[in-house]
Write a structure and sequence with these properties.
This protein has 159 residues and is mostly helical. Helices cover 77% and strands 0% of the residues. It is elongated and about 60 Å long. The C terminus is likely disordered.
């Protein structure tokens, strides 16, 4: 009788984890896209950039989603790889990483908000254009602050 579970080698698992970590670098593309489209302290320019480059903005969102899925697979591969060494520590690391991904996914909802707000402003007269641009800029700036470098770098703009 054959064994229904196939055990993969640790070397193969480590290589696959490296592949998924590399795929996870697509988040860098998404961060680059948002940094080019968002104009600091200028809601009108930010709204114009997002609407003018809507497909690029959407590709940035796709890059984020690919990164999140790759990081989930990466976390599960590392858990399976380190489980024989120390099960509790491997589980703690996996749960911590998965909670972080869940938080990033929930924050990622704000990526769609500028598109919804700006598309609604085109078809609705209830909110004026300046208000919708300010809302879209607020959501976009929130996602720029998701990058770790934004937490530590001083504000270079003038007030």
């Amino acid at each position: 009788m054959t064994d229904p579970t196939v055990k993969t080698s640790p070397r193969f698992q480590a290589r696959m984890a490296g592949v998924f970590a590399w795929i996870g670098t697509t988040e860098g593309f998404a961060i680059w896209v948002r940094s080019r489209l968002v104009v600091d302290r200028d809601a009108a320019a930010t709204a114009h950039n997002i609407l003018a480059h809507e497909l690029l903005y959407r590709w940035g969102i796709v890059g984020d989603v690919i990164s999140y899925v790759a990081f989930i697979v990466y976390t599960l591969l590392l858990y399976d790889l380190f489980r024989p060494v120390n099960r509790r520590l491997a589980l703690l690391a996996a749960v911590s990483n998965l909670v972080g991904v869940a938080i990033q996914l929930s924050i990622g909802v704000f990526l769609l908000a500028p598109l919804v707000v700006l598309e609604g402003a085109r078809s609705s007269s209830a909110v004026n254009v300046a208000q919708s641009q300010a809302q879209a800029s607020c959501f976009s700036t929130f996602m720029i602050m998701d990058t770790p470098s934004a937490w530590y770098l001083p504000d270079s703009g003038t007030s």
